[in-house]
Amino acid sequence: MSTRLIIIENINQVAEEQEKALAPLTDDLVLLESGLDSLCFAILVSRLEDDLGVDPFTASDEIVFPVTLGDFVSLYEAARIDAAA
Amino acid sequence: MRPPELRSLREALTREARPGGPDGSRMLHGLAQSVALPDLLDLSCLNGDVAGQRVLLVTGDQFLAGLALIAVDGLAEAVVLCPPDLAPEHLPAIAARAGATCLLTDRPRSALPGLDGLPLIDCAWPPVPAAREPEFERATEWLLLTSGTTGVPKLVRHDLAGLTGAIRPRPEGEPAPVWATFYDIRRYGGLQIFLRGVLGGGSLVLSGGCEPVSDHLARLGRHGVTHVSGTPSHWRRVLMSPARGLIDPGTIRLSGEIADQAVLDGLRETYPRAAIGHAYASTEAGVGFEVTDGLEGFPKAFVGRPGAVEMRVVDGSLRIRSRRTASGYVGSDELALADAEGFVDTGDMVEERTVDGATRYHFVGRRGGIINVGGLKVHPEEIEAVINRHARVRMSLVEARRNPITGAVVQASVVLDEAADLPAPDEIRREILAACRAELSPHKVPALLKIVPRLDVTAAGKLARRPA
């Protein structure tokens, strides 16, 4: 499964568990307006670390905090490439 | 600035409020309301007399709590600052422990069950012109609630002198600061900023409950905030907001959680002109120290040096002695807050690390495995108890998992009994998590739950808990 699909699946799962209404998951969606709160993001990042094997927030030397869903997916895609290299 | 013998908030406002002076523009801003701080000397939002009372302050609105604190300090014998997330069922026990004699609230009595014996004083906006109260009759006890306990929170006693001990005078000629905090002012971290706002010669912008991050940042930007404080979790949300450019603070403070290098670096990149510091403070130990070199942890040399705040590391945990520590727990005399030498054991575990030849202490978690999820403390045992109620669970271990968003999340490992019959583990996982969601606050529900074949047990027969 692609990084993007795994992320989307996890986002849907967390939103359902936390009973959050999600905005449509487009690339330009601002994460803070997605319907997920801090705790949801925390859970998401921990689960993605298990599913994708990377935590780009901790691994990278240059920390870029993602603003949109597109940024978020790119961050993980880049981290997976780095980890595989 | 702060005169040497500051006795009450209103006394401080009186000294500053000179007709036509430069202080007329000092404001306290709430979400929807604003008031000039010096005007509060001749206004009242209370409909009763608090002199000599032990006041239980329970407001839904943070702005009203701020007005009430200014009104009661120096008159009341004590004020109990109930934070907004306090479970109402704890209120009667807290009232009894504090010896409360009145209830100061913006809520109807029906919303506060079990407090019928306490006379009620309303706290309401807008305030009305009132005869000026005496500036000082007695040193009011400030009673704060701890957040790191299961059941009824402990009450910690402070006084104004101790609470303001870390506030330094504004350097000569520096423009009046505009303070803001993402904290609630009824918690120690937020209270520090409230007191700086009231006493520090500037203005203060309070946070607004459920206000979206972008609206909050826009409001802070409109008021021209210069000094902003919050937990690392608060700041990570700011860094993830497209509205982060709407503020341009000169001073940024982080406290309440471990500040990691990522959030410090993110802030430095986003706010290049800001002086960024992370402070160590706790409800019990008061303001400990501040680190301003942009690196996580704190220099080893802080420990053992003489000064207003003395630090020790004993068995891996940080101990602090200073005038700013609380004077004791209230209503539970058997609990000693400090050791025989006056050091408060913070329960925060530190570890020595040497990077590039410089030795620093890094915070590694709480003793006893208490998990700090975005500033909210979680006892693993409370969650394990819920998990263990599932018929198929033999034992469980709940621990912290480091997390870049909230500092930590809750992770559970569960051993199932060996009954060979169904249901399958996946179904059991779902049932356990459903039980947790039904009984626990969201931050306590395990973010990750693993079924494991066994858990280690110590020689004493206890679950082997790794240091958090």
From TrEMBL, chain A:
Fetch the SUPFAM superfamilies from UniProt. ACP-like
Question: What is this protein identified as?
Answer: Acyl carrier protein
Q: Which InterPro entries match?
A: ACP-like_sf (IPR036736)
From TrEMBL, chain B:
Q: What class of enzyme is it?
A: ligase
Q: Which PROSITE patterns does this UniProt record tie to the protein?
A: AMP_BINDING
Please list the residue ranges annotated as the AMP-binding enzyme C-terminal domain: 382-462
Q: Which GO terms describe its cellular component?
A: membrane
Q: What is this protein called?
A: Long-chain-fatty-acid--CoA ligase
Any GO MF annotation of the entry: long-chain fatty acid-CoA ligase activity
Q: Which InterPro entries match?
A: AMP-bd_C, AMP-bd_C_sf, AMP-binding_CS, AMP-dep_synth/lig_dom, ANL_N_sf, ATP-dep_AMP-bd_enzyme
Domain AMP-dependent synthetase/ligase per the UniProt entry, residue ranges = 52-317
Which EC number applies? 6.2.1.3
Where in the cell? Membrane
This protein's record includes keyword Ligase: yes
